[in-house]
Design goal:
The protein is mainly beta and 148 residues long. It is built from no helices and 14 strands. Helices cover 0% and strands 45% of the residues. The strands form four sheets. Strands 6-10-3-1-12 form a five-stranded antiparallel beta sheet, with no helix packed on it. A five-stranded antiparallel beta sheet has the order 7-8-5-13-14, with no helix packed on it. A two-stranded antiparallel ribbon has the order 2-11.
């Protein structure tokens, strides 16, 4: 899992980041077998949370990236945004990297400020960085990272 922040301030009107997956294995992996969890502390009610996929380099782009919020419990995380991929999104060859997906989390349409520094998955870096705080699951089993 590689991550880069799009918004790096302590507070922002949206949590905005990029993710991509590197296949370090010897076989091709279908993206539809993978899910990604971005863990955060919601500064608003869950009912008010929204997400957008601004761009995705997977086959078919954002139309093949699914997003769902879930409640969680853990240090610096009371929610996560789970990203998934449809079968049409394609696969990642051995040694290759998936296309990046640019994601935003925000509060309704009013864009209330959200604190990022208390979010488990947040790192204030715009350079691609391996992130152990963003978890990846293969067929539902944890394959990368550490849950909060």
């Amino acid at each position: 899992m590689q991550y880069a922040a799009r918004e790096t301030g302590a507070e922002a009107q949206q949590l905005s980041f990029k993710v991509r997956i590197r296949n370090t294995g010897a076989e091709r992996i279908a993206l539809s077998d993978l899910t990604i969890r971005y863990w955060f502390t919601a500064d608003v009610e869950m009912v008010d949370l929204k997400s957008e996929c601004d761009f995705s380099g997977v086959t078919g782009g954002c139309a093949n990236v699914t997003r769902a919020f879930r409640a969680a419990s853990g240090t610096d995380a009371d929610h996560y945004l789970e990203l998934g991929f449809s079968a049409a999104a394609g696969s990642i060859d051995a040694g290759a990297t998936s296309g990046e997906s640019q994601i935003r989390i925000y509060n309704r349409e009013v864009y209330d400020r959200m604190t990022q520094t208390d979010d488990y998955s947040f790192e204030a870096t715009t350079a691609w960085t391996p992130s152990m705080q963003i978890t990846v699951y293969y067929d539902g089993e944890l394959a990368w990272g550490v849950e909060p």
